[in-house]
Each structure stands twice: as structure tokens, then as C-alpha cells.
Write a structure and sequence with these properties.
GO terms for molecular function: thioredoxin peroxidase activity. The protein is of the alpha+beta class. It is 35% helix and 17% strand.
Length: 247
């Protein structure tokens, strides 16, 4: 980590120059990077966003969250993604999920980009925050880049700052997906996995391949037949370790 040169008060113009130089000399060391795994605590941070200063844990409160990131503003794939998530915001709201975007540029530029997103996706209003991460601090904190991108994290556009993190109300990371720069995300899949996670948490079940709301669920092998009968009622045994029941 570096020690900020801004700790000593300077004239505004000089502070601006120093801030630029600090960003240029910032070095990112893998030894200092948190290791984020499923069920690890989501690293907290405070950053500027298009809706003001945002502290991740405080913003989420008792809600679930989806933090999804982008390498730069005015990029074609990311523009379509943000528009798609914005259209689905009412569906995320129903599931008690807050959306948080991130792009590795300044908030002022995000505000201009939002106008394009609204126009292209025919939105009345873009209504969730996009974090400004021009310093790449959050990208580093959440390990959002590929191997080559990490080497260039301090300078220039970095590909593959395109990750999705689903965070539950206890602030644990429950899902991580990182996409290459050339592949657009599937917003419906993010909704699907949130449904599956919430179903599993509330009912003590797991979900099979391609599960959708209304489909049968699987009773975990750790639950005995007697306990399964008491808890779920009827169930269908395909194999001793594969038992289906109604959700």
C-alpha cells in the first residue's frame, strides 16, 4: 500500500496534481489482496457513486446485494448490461435485492454515460448507483481482473473488470461469476441463482440443474429419510442420495 501524499494540506490545484500522481504511483501487491471465497465476508468499502458516497455494508443493510462491475464507461457490452439490469430492477426489488454497478472511471463520466443507457434501453430513469472506481481500489479489493489485467491495474484500461458478486444480508459472498471482456452477462441467470439461494436458505434444500421457481428441489443427503418425511412430507427417491420434493 502507499502513503497518501494528500495528508498534508495543499492548495486545491496542487492537491489535484498530487492526487493524479498518487494514482500513477499506486502499486497493487497480490500479497495484500483479500482472498474472496464463497461464504467469506464481502470486503467493505466506501466510494463515490452516482447517488453520492456509498458504504457497501451500510447501503445493503438487511438486503441482499448484487455488485457487478465494468472496465470503462461508454463501452458497448457494458452499456447493454446496465440497461438490462435496470429494466429488471423491479424484479430484484421483489426479492429484497439491491443492485450496485461499478465502472473503473470517474462518477462525473458515469452521469453522462447514464443518459446513453437510458436512451438505448428506453428507460424512463436509471435508478441504482454506479460506483466510480478510477483508482481501481475496489477492482483490486474484489480481484476483478485477469492475470494480464492485474499487471496493468495501475495504468490504462484494464479488461475483465466484469464480475458479479451476490451478497446476502449477513454480508457473505454467496456467488461469484467473472466474465471475459467479450461475453455479455445473463441478467436472468443472476435472478435465477438468487431465487435458488433464497429457496435453499428458507427451506433447507438444494436445487438441481437448470432449476426454476416452481420446479422440484432436492433434499440434501445429510437429511435422513425419516427427517425428510417429517420436514417435507412426500418425496421421490431416485437414488438413496437423490430425493426430489416439492418446493
Amino acid at each position: 500500500m502507499f502513503r497518501s501524499l494528500l495528508s498534508v494540506k495543499k492548495p486545491v490545484q496542487q492537491q489535484s496534481l498530487l492526487k493524479t500522481s498518487v494514482r500513477m504511483i499506486r502499486t497493487f501487491n497480490q500479497e495484500e489482496q483479500p482472498r474472496i471465497r464463497i461464504n467469506s465476508l464481502a470486503p467493505n468499502f466506501t466510494a463515490d457513486s452516482t447517488q453520492g458516497k456509498l458504504n457497501l455494508h451500510e447501503y445493503l443493510g438487511n438486503s441482499w446485494g448484487v455488485l457487478f462491475s465494468h472496465p470503462a464507461d461508454f463501452t458497448p457490452v457494458c452499456t447493454t448490461e446496465l440497461g438490462a439490469f435496470a429494466k429488471l430492477k423491479p424484479d430484484f426489488d421483489k426479492r429484497n435485492v439491491k443492485l450496485i454497478g461499478l465502472s473503473a472511471e470517474e462518477v462525473d463520466k458515469h452521469q453522462t454515460w447514464i443518459k446513453d443507457i437510458e436512451e438505448i434501453s428506453a428507460l424512463d430513469k436509471f435508478s441504482f448507483p454506479i460506483i466510480g472506481d478510477s483508482s481501481r481500489e475496489v477492482a483490486f479489493l474484489y480481484d476483478m481482473v485477469d492475470e494480464e489485467g492485474f499487471k496493468n491495474l495501475s495504468n490504462g484500461i484494464v479488461a475483465t473488470i466484469r464480475s458479479v458478486y451476490v451478497i446476502d444480508p449477513s454480508k457473505k459472498v454467496r456467488l461469484i461469476i467473472t466474465y471475459p471482456a467479450s461475453v455479455g452477462r445473463n441478467s436472468s441467470e443472476v435472478l435465477r441463482v438468487i431465487d435458488a439461494l433464497q429457496k435453499g436458505d428458507s427451506k433447507g434444500v438444494v436445487t438441481p440443474i437448470n432449476w426454476q421457481v416452481g420446479d422440484d428441489v432436492i433434499i440434501p443427503p445429510t437429511v435422513s429419510d425419516a427427517a425428510a418425511k417429517e420436514k417435507f412430507g412426500d418425496f421421490n427417491t431416485v437414488k438413496p442420495y437423490l430425493r426430489y420434493t416439492k418446493a
